[in-house]
Amino acid sequence: MAAPMTEQVDGGDALLSPALSDSDSDPVSEDGRLPEYVVELVDREIGGDLKSLKKVGALLEKLTAENKLLEEQSEVDEGLTTGYPQSVQVLTVSSSVPLRVSSALSEAEQSRQEAESLLQRERMLSNTLQQHLQGAQPWADSLGQVLGQLDTIDRHMKYLQCLARIEELSDSIQQCLMTNSVWEAVGAVDGMASLDLGLQESGCAHLQAFLRETLAFWHKILKDRLAGDLQEVLTQLHWPFLSPPVESLSPPPNVQELYSQLELLVPQLLSLQTSDDLISEKKPHPSRAGLPPDTPLSLPIQIMILPLSKRFRYHFTGNRQTNSLNKPEWYLTQVLMWMGNNSKFMEEKIQPILDRADAKINAKAELCRGLLSLAQEKLAHDARGCSTTTPSSATW
Questions:
Q1: In sequence order, what are the beta bridge partners of 294?
Q2: Which end of the chain has a smaller Cβ tally under 10 Å, C or N?
Q3: What is the pLDDT of residues 239-275, one digit of tens each?
């Protein structure tokens, strides 16, 4: 490999000589051999492949550029050390600063000027806005007072509108009762109950009290009227059934008319449920043993249970022989008998009416709930009086 390398280097002397001719020392030694660093450079850049000789031109250009750069740097160093004029030194050093640095400095200066301009405009706008706000403050204060007055007037207007609505509903109920338009009267009472619910969150205590008194007045009139009509119809239908129904018992001659009245009275009483709960202030009882809260008994079922409640209190309160603390099974058995005797009527006659009225009520379950509440009250009373009252003197 040494012989070919020597030939390649010798063949390239003519190409390398221009680049080395400007140097102060001759790279060729006295014995005609090239210095070691030149041989290493040629071997590293060109190698031993003859096809790599085309790289000689590029290598020559590279060496020429590096030589020129070294000469310029040498001139600068000589100028600094030999005392060239200061202006020449500054000019030489400035010429070596990259153009992008100058451009960046120029852009930074321009940005600084723009920022100062924007800050100046911001200060002017801030001062103008502050002056405007100070000038508008009296107007804002005056407008706030006017808005407060308008709010007070608006609340007074709503108060008067509510009073007018109560009077309107009251007059409507009175007119409907005079013309025997029960359904319209029931709807007006229901509207008054909705108004009562809407006022519960307000602070108008006097208005709420007036509305509640008016609602209670008309509700009692309607409820008493409808309850009386329902009890009369139920009595003619032989309600309640104290013993198992007998098939041979002949129905009343106007049974279809009675069922038509029953079909009308039950939904009307259901429409009074909201006002009835408001007036009596009935709330769901808390749940027991994981069961859902008990809702108030529906109004038609309350009226239907009244005759059974009277009989229960007659037999199992006071000094009656049937009122015995030692015999709680007596009233429990009686309650179970009433449930069984009246379940068929509730399922066949009352439940279809409730379904057509879209009432989510089970008639049979409501009857059982009402009767069990009687037994529950009796049991609670007896439990409280066990320690102080003898069976013969128990009262309720």
A1: 285
A2: N
A3: 998 888 665 567 778 889 999 999 999 999 999 998 9
Cα–Cα distance measured from residue 284 to residue 377, given in angstroms and rounded to the nearest whole number:
17
From the number of C-beta atoms within 10 Å of its C-beta (0-12, 13-18, 19+), residue 218 rates as: buried
Using alpha carbons, select from 172, 193, 192 the residue that is nearest to residue 182: 172
Task: Read off the tokens for 303.
Answer: 């009226």
Count of beta carbons in the 10 Å neighbourhood of residue 159: 14
Tokens of 391: 């069976």
The residues that bridge with 285 in the sheet, in sequence order, are 294
CA distance 65 to 44: 19
Q: What angle do CA 168, 169, 170 make, to 5 degrees?
A: 90
Phi, psi of 294 (to 5 degrees): -80, 125
Over 70: is that where the pLDDT of 366 sits?
Answer: yes
Contacts of 386 (CB under 8 A, 6+ apart): 325
Bigger pLDDT: 196 or 81?
196
Strand, coil or helix: 249: coil
How far is it, in rounded angstroms, from Cα 79 to Cα 124? Answer: 54
pLDDT in tens, 108-126: 888 889 999 999 999 999 9
